[in-house]
Amino acid sequence: MALLPDSATEPDGSATVRVLSYNIRSMRDDTAALARVITACAPDLVLLQEAPRFFRWRKKLARLAAASGQVILTGGGTAAGPAILCGLRATVERTEDVLLPLTPGLHRRGFATAVVRFGGARLGVLSCHLSLQQEERYDQGGMLLDRLAGLGTEHAVAGGDLNERPDGPAFRRLAADLQDCRTAAPWGGEYTSTPADPHQRIDAIFATKGVEVLGCGVPLDQPGVREADLRAASDHLPVLAALRVPAS
């Protein structure tokens, strides 16, 4: 299988950006394995779900970022779990963490969002972890689309744990407005849950229409990514995408 393109900035200002989305289960598993997987994927942006959000969560997230060659961009406890890490290649324009309406009896959910630049390419970014409850999940899909549009960027990417397969209503709502990157350019593995028995795709990366998807999938054959690390790092498998973002 061919490798995804490396990160690059072109003379015309466009950029190839590598985006990783990963549910890390509050770093309750093998954090050294988790850091090795992230590092091997060489991402420019890391969209996390279930980042630490309680006792000393900032310290835990900072430790993961340092161990994987990233810096904290936004999110964690302030977004009820979603977070964004980035490499030093990104120029950060702004960040915002958003808490979604709380349904009594269900978990608080939120979005971690940012606007960043790579060369002449300006990109809106959103990390999400949608509800376990179908009706709330569908509503949150609409909020995601609204929030992504509200970032004020021509091009944007969103990724996360949707808690739903591609034939579900929330997933289809997102795929109707955005590119489902895995469908647009399949690469690597398809299923993200569970590492021990991959049988369903409930994690995804989406991009706005003007972004060219160069490949997207579970990085099973990415150099440096070992099956043992994927099994030890979390109860989800990560999704890696390479995107070509036009100059803004």
From TrEMBL:
Domain Endonuclease/exonuclease/phosphatase: start-end pairs: 20-236
Q: Which domain of life is it from?
A: Bacteria
Please name the InterPro entries in this protein's record: Endo/exonu/phosph_ase_sf, Endo/exonuclease/phosphatase
SUPFAM superfamilies found in the cross-reference section: DNase I-like
Tell me which UniProt keywords the record has, alphabetically: Endonuclease, Hydrolase, Nuclease
Gene3D superfamilies per the record? Endonuclease/exonuclease/phosphatase (3.60.10.10)
Q: Name one GO molecular function term.
A: endonuclease activity
Signal sequence, start to end: none
Q: What name does UniProt use for this protein?
A: Endonuclease/exonuclease/phosphatase family protein
